[in-house]
Amino acid sequence: MNIPSSMPPGVAFLSGQFTAENGIKKITRCGDLSGVFYDRAAWQAIPVDTPVYRVEMLRSPQGEGELFVGITHLQPGRVGDEFYMTRGHFHQRREQGEVYFGLRGTGLLLLQNEQGVARLEQISPGSVHIIPGFTAHRLINTGSEVLSALAVWPSVAGHDYAALAHGFALRVIEQDGKIQAKEVQHG
């Protein structure tokens, strides 16, 4: 019996790349991350066109009940003593959750609720992270190679970056050769 089928997109786990050719790709450069890093002088010293992370997404239908699938590739590096990180966001529709799967590299997933309570989860190949609704999230690369994580989220979720205009409650830095989380005082 010949059953008609098609080959769906896949992920090459060693490289963390989608096998699909028709995806959407976006690069975020250092110059795009104004206000993200605590040490503004160190941020300004890095050329604005330096790539910090890129996101690949599969083309997906949009609407209630539909999902986006994407992979973030976060470069290793630091701005001052702070590790490279994604901008981080809440969802516009706060009740929408997300799932991250670690593909390669090592780092941290910073999670923060609307009351400003933050926590960190270690991310590495094979780790699975359930990000509940009403939770902001950011990837931080604490390793020496690219950190890649696959994400699945509702296409109606949206992104709300403005809600974090003052940043997250924690900063992850390297101090005296050790990775440390430091609380940030806003005000």
Automatic annotation (TrEMBL):
InterPro entries of this UniProt entry?
Answer: G6P_isomerase_prok, RmlC-like_jellyroll, RmlC_Cupin_sf
Ordered alphabetically, the record's keywords are: Gluconeogenesis, Glycolysis
Q: Which reaction does it catalyse?
A: alpha-D-glucose 6-phosphate = beta-D-fructose 6-phosphate
Query: What EC number(s) would the UniProt record show?
Result: 5.3.1.9
What top-level branch of life does the organism fall under? Answer: Bacteria
List the SUPFAM superfamilies hit by this protein, alphabetically. RmlC-like cupins (SSF51182)
Please list the residue ranges annotated as the Glucose-6-phosphate isomerase prokaryote domain. 29-181
Pathway recorded for this protein = Carbohydrate degradation; glycolysis; D-glyceraldehyde 3-phosphate and glycerone phosphate from D-glucose: step 2/4
Q: Which family does it belong to?
A: Belongs to the archaeal-type GPI family.
Q: What is this protein called?
A: glucose-6-phosphate isomerase
Please give the organism: Cedecea colo
